[in-house]
Amino acid sequence: MSEQSRPAEQSTSTLAEIRAARLEKVEQLKELGLIPYAYRWESTHHAAELQEKFAELPDGEEVDLEVAIAGRILARRVFGKLAFFNLQDETGTIQLYLDKKRISTKMADVPNAFKHLKQLTDIGDILGVKGTIKRTEKGELSVYVSEYTMLTKSLLPLPDKWHGLTDTEKRYRQRYVDLIVNPTVRETFRRRAQITAAIRRYLEEQGFIEIETPVFHNEAGGAEARPFITYHNTLEMELYLRIATELHLKRLIVGGFEKVFELGRIFRNEGVSTRHNPEFTTIEIYQAYTDYHDMMRLTENLISHAAQTVLGTLEITYQGQAINLTPPWRKVTMHQLVKEQTGLDFQQFKSLEAAKAEARKAGIEGLDECQSLGKLLNEAFEQKVEETLIQPTFVLDYPVEISPLAKPHRSEPGLVERFELFITGRETANSFSELTDPIDQRTRLEAQAAKKAAGDLEAQGVDEDFLTALEYGMPPTGGLGIGIDRLVMLLTDCASIRDAIAFPLLKSSSVVLQSFDYDAATQTLRVEFNSGSVYKYRDVPDSVYQAFKNAPSVGQYFNSHIREKYGYDREL
Questions:
Q1: I need a surface site. Which of 168, 243, 439, 485 has the fewest CB within 10 A?
Q2: 3-class DSSP state for residue 156?
Q3: What's the rounded Cα separation, in Å, for the pair 32 and 112?
Q4: Is 548 helix (H, G, I), strand (E, B) or coil?
């Protein structure tokens, strides 16, 4: 019988008991003169490499080739004089075939080496082993271990393989555990790295160069979005985290660069959803002497190149839907799409009120906020059209009211030369024939600033330095922005943006209240957080407790009125 056929410790012991038992094993290793936390290890192979190289090795055969590998123990089966571990490294898993006689012979300088291996290792430990390659009689390719080294003793247990890590919130909050137990998650982030590398290589091959621009801005600009605000103590000035890289990249075009881009983080103080994270990655690309038609071709080529390079195909499946990324992609105006879906032809309306009346009949909501035909057209598009655009579609020619940085359309008054790319109902890219007229640009930014002054949290202010740059002269320029997170979602079949970002922003578990109680006699408020931590706050008046208990948001009240105002003790 196996002494340990599955990781049962979690079902029979508390987490604290498991950790205490493992700490005891750390001390035992030290007493034996063994190091529980090694300094280095040199491997000769990885698991996947061995699996591939010896795929044809017959059952029962052994290869006289010594290999050294390292990885994490995912499973243990321990018998009398034999043990079988599953070891996982970055590339995959392989079995360890552990024989008492062989290990005792090779590790004669460590008395009872096999016994220590059985008794002092746990699932989750990181082990280094040396041995030969053998396929067992049951057909399992194994490293036939001659010696082992404890590299890292794990103190906390992994989720068992029968249940895995299925708590979505915990998967994002403890991504390191998610990566250990879910190989598909590791593959997602490996592919993400390959996608961004493929994009960079393609652009560099086309003569583009990447130049980093500031994250701190004096004036948030380049998009309509609510910024994060911070403060620099030494300079005594308020700063914004960038909401776009656009305006600084355009300054580079003014300065004489003709093909520039930056792939980097953007910060917007907005909502969180399956499509939005406050911190996200974009690539913005600017090319002198081009327009939005050139940017359409670049977009097709760039995305299809990344897909072909990483996936080996342009025919993919996203959440059960077949998507064909083969260029050329459909090109259609916003006006035409709205007309197709709603029957409304916004080019025929003579007044805003007439348009609103017909829009209400078509089921368009939120009309009171629309103060122009352009805004109304965009609202109709967002409500009735976006989610229908499954295959790659370039939506062309947007209203000027929602495109303050785009050049006026050369033949359609009231519109600008802009496109957005939609795939699976999501905006994936955005592009302009960039506005190069400094007078027109000032007028539009001042209109934005007026909206900002009136309370619009997403409106831009006036970036005077950018306007000065434009007055020195910017050549005709095409600009393109691609949401990297959404592109990764598409190419890795992730339903949520949190699955495409290694460490998405989450509400701090340390300030999320799990439960609380109050001892009126001692005026002690005991609070348990979702993280498992428990604190006792002293000398909290009953009136404060009653206000806390009855507050619409106990978390908000706690942070504002209790957290930093009363002494506390941590309950161990």
A1: 439
A2: coil
A3: 10
A4: helix
Closest listed residue to residue 5, CA positions, set 93, 78, 103, 66: 78
199-232 confidence digits (pLDDT tens): 999 999 999 999 999 999 999 888 888 999 999 9
Contact 46, 90 (CB under 8 A): yes
Per the structure block, which two tokens stand in for 75?
């499973």
User: What's the pTM value of the predicted model, to 2 decimals?
Assistant: 0.84
Looking at residue 554, its amino acid is: V
Residues 6+ apart with CB under 8 A from 343: 362
Q: Are 323 and 208 in contact (CB under 8 A)?
A: no
Please tell me the distance from the alpha carbon of residue 82 to that of residue 99, in angstroms, as a whole number.
5
Model confidence pLDDT, tens digit, residues 523-563: 999 998 876 788 899 999 999 999 999 988 788 788 778 97
Q: Per residue in 442-467, is it b (16+ CB within 10 Å) or e — as a string?
A: bebbeebbeebeeeeebbbbbbeebb
Spell out a b/e string for 477-515, using b for 16 or more CB atoms within 10 Å of the CB, else e: bbbbbbbbbbbbbbbbebeebbbbbeebeeeebeeebee
CA distance 418 to 409: 8
> In angstroms, what CA-CA distances link 365 with 347, 361, 398?
20, 10, 20
> Cα–Cα distance between 219 and 389 in angstroms, integer?
35
| Three-state DSSP class for residue 74 | strand
Q: Give 197's Cβ-side CA count (13 Å radius).
A: 8
CA 164 to chain CA mean position, Å: 21
For 244-275, write each residue's pLDDT tens digit.
999 999 999 999 999 999 999 999 998 778 88
For the chain of 572 residues, list the mean pLDDT of each consecutive stretch of 10. 47 81 97 96 98 96 96 96 97 97 95 96 98 96 98 92 62 90 95 98 98 94 90 94 96 98 95 86 98 98 98 97 98 97 91 90 88 91 96 96 90 95 96 96 90 85 94 98 97 95 79 85 90 86 92 82 84 74
Name 318's bridge partners.
321
- For residue 488, CA distances in Å to 192, 430, 485 come to 6, 16, 5
Q: Output phi, psi for 97, to 5 deg.
A: -100, 110
Query: What is the token pair recorded at 114?
Result: 């096999």
